[in-house]
Design brief:
Low-confidence stretches: 151-160
Shape: globular
Structural class: alpha+beta
CATH topology of the largest domain: Rossmann fold
Strand order of the largest sheet: 8-9-10-14-15
Number of strands: 19
Strand content: 15-25%
CATH class of the largest domain: Alpha Beta
Oligomer: single chain
Number of helices: 12
């Protein structure tokens, strides 16, 4: 992720892929999450009041501690009927809290019968704190006693109140043992559980580039890495609004990298399907970078740096610019490559859709390829694919509200005007080829694209053709809008 920002990336969504080290139980449904129980007295023999948990699994939660204290003044809280408390969150041994929640209540009722109380501890903390969640352990709503907090120290002998330290956090199953590549791809959401891994991005609309560097971790077999890479390509194919950047495993020869892409022996055994997707690309070899902590060189997958170069080129020029070459493909984070690739090897790998990372004496480490892994010549280049993702998504969002308008000639003229204006701007920005707009694109929305049966079905269909690379060559796609949602068809 550091490489992404070093290369010019601006916004990054991160999903943690996690495999529990053991099965959940009724008393501990999240066994790898650090936690601590708070009682009504300091000796913990009194009734349990609440449980504080780290916001996610892992040993990081063991660095947290909490302190329940006397609250600040509240003119609205009854000290008998609704006693309040303050909960502070600490990290490591730092005496300054990283979060403070004051005027908390264990009372679920706001008044004799009103529910819920906006100051109830779960409402005030859960989903708001960056570090913890809490569970009100009092089944009886009449039990409103807050957790124990010490009295203020009597001067002149100051003392530090004891913090309740969270413990029990674990980092889950290890890579290659309990943790598999399929856990990186994850599972779909169910009625009770959210989506995990890559599938967790289903709820995020504005992602456009995806990478999973750990797919090619040496703890995984090549076959498992390939299977999950195929699944990642499939994920982007299904969404149609994002592009997957894949890595080859470390240590491969040029021929082995080609075998890996093709899915053939002797590198891949048993053999598998070749990578063939217009929604993805693959890079080879790994790059060497300086560890910011140790100062030593580390060999790392290139995808993190590659997606950063995509983002930088998007900002500097636009999505129609290929993220490759000595300028837009220069990798600031790389000091060397794992393996030096010759021109002859480059000439073998590039036509097969394996984008090579090369080091040149006067240019440094650069991306020297801009191809997708698709066998379809129409979608051979990364910039063409990503340009169409941008155009299709922009037009879909710009026309989605029109499905509630009467589907007639007036609406068709409006669509031709609005979509044409958008594509004219794209042409002026250099995204489309042609010496005038009518040679760069066309928009068709009429009785031919919208016959009576389509109108009766609630569909609004627009046919669009654009020339992303050659003046005389149009790539055509269809935008279909319904009240249930829209889609682009190529």
């Amino acid at each position: 992720m550091q490489h992404f920002f070093t290369e010019g990336g601006t916004r990054c969504y991160v999903v943690r892929a996690f495999k529990p080290s053991g099965p959940p139980t009724v008393t501990n449904p999240t066994p790898d999450t650090a936690r601590v129980d708070l009682h009504t007295t300091a000796d913990n023999t009194s009734p349990l009041v609440m449980t504080v948990l780290a916001s996610s699994e892992g040993t990081w939660g063991n660095r947290l501690s909490v302190l329940a204290e006397k609250p600040g003044f509240s003119p609205n809280a009854d000290p008998v009927k609704d006693p309040r408390f303050k909960l502070s969150v600490f990290l490591d041994d730092n005496p300054t809290p990283i979060e403070i929640f004051d005027q908390l209540s264990m009372n679920e009722f706001d008044g004799p019968t009103d529910f819920p109380n906006p100051d109830h501890v779960e409402i005030r903390i859960n989903g708001i704190s960056k570090y913890i969640t809490v569970i009100d352990a009092t089944d009886d709503r009449a039990k409103i006693t807050p957790p124990f907090f010490p009295l203020p120290p009597a001067p002149p002998m100051p003392q530090v109140p004891p913090h309740a330290k969270l413990n029990g956090g674990r980092d889950g199953a290890a890579l290659g043992t309990g943790f598999k590549t399929t856990d990186l791809i994850g599972t779909f959401a169910t009625a009770t559980d959210p989506a995990t891994g890559l599938n967790a991005f289903d709820t995020v609309d504005n992602i456009n580039i995806v990478a999973i560097p750990d797919l090619v971790n040496s703890a995984f077999t090549l076959s498992d890495a390939r299977d999950s890479t195929l699944a990642a390509f499939g994920y982007c194919e299904r969404r149609k609004d994002c592009f997957f950047v894949a890595d080859t495993p470390s240590g491969l020869t040029p021929q082995a990298a080609l075998d890996y892409k093709r899915g053939v022996k002797p590198t891949v055994d048993p053999e598998g399907s070749a990578f063939n997707s217009k929604y993805g690309a693959i890079y080879y070899p790994w790059i060497q970078a300086t560890d910011p902590i140790t100062g030593k060189r580390k060999t790392l997958p290139p995808s993190g740096a590659a997606v950063g170069s995509y983002s930088a080129a998007d900002v500097r020029v636009g999505v129609h610019k290929a993220p490759a070459g000595t300028e837009d493909g220069f990798l600031n984070s790389a000091v060397n490559v794992e393996r030096v690739i010759t021109k002859g090897e480059q000439d073998t790998l590039n036509p097969e859709g394996v984008n090579v990372i090369r080091k040149f004496p006067d240019a440094g480490v650069v991306i020297w390829g801009a191809r997708t892994v698709s066998n379809d010549a129409e979608w051979r280049y990364i910039n063409v694919r990503r340009l169409f993702i941008y155009l299709e998504e922009s037009i879909l969002k710009g026309t989605q509200g029109l499905v509630f308008e009467p589907n007639d000639k007036s609406l068709w003229k409006r669509i031709i005007r609005d979509v044409g204006a958008f594509l004219t701007l794209a042409w002026r920005a250099g995204m489309l080829v042609g010496d005038k707009p009518e040679k760069a694109f066309f928009v068709k929305c009429d009785e031919e694209t919208n016959p009576p049966e389509s109108i009766d079905a609630g569909m609004l269909v627009t046919l669009i053709g654009v020339a992303p690379s050659k003046p005389a060559e149009f790539v055509i796609f269809r935008i279909r809008q319904t009240r249930a949602g829209g889609a682009a068809e190529e």
